[in-house]
Design brief:
Number of strands: 0
Distance between the termini: 18 Å
Structural class: mainly alpha
Length: 76
């Protein structure tokens, strides 16, 4: 779900991109068993999962959003 958003985040910049990240994570959590509360309680889960399943995409997202980790970009 992140890969298609990378070009948008690069163009939009980190401020708007982080809004997109939050929307994407909410959608991902809903699709994967409505685990939004789990993600809220353990934001680093997003970093653990993306490090395992798509490390290159994760790295590109961190660069585009200017974040040390994806959890830092989650506001919810």
């Amino acid at each position: 779900m992140i890969r298609p958003e990378l070009s948008n985040w690069r163009v939009q910049g980190p401020t708007l991109g982080k809004i997109g990240l939050n929307a994407l994570v909410h959608e991902w959590a809903l699709v994967n068993g409505a685990i939004n509360a789990t993600v809220l309680a353990d934001k680093p889960i997003i970093d653990r999962l993306t490090s395992e399943s798509c490390p290159d995409v994760r790295r590109q997202a961190l660069d585009a959003l200017e974040l040390p980790d994806l959890a830092s970009g989650l506001a919810f």
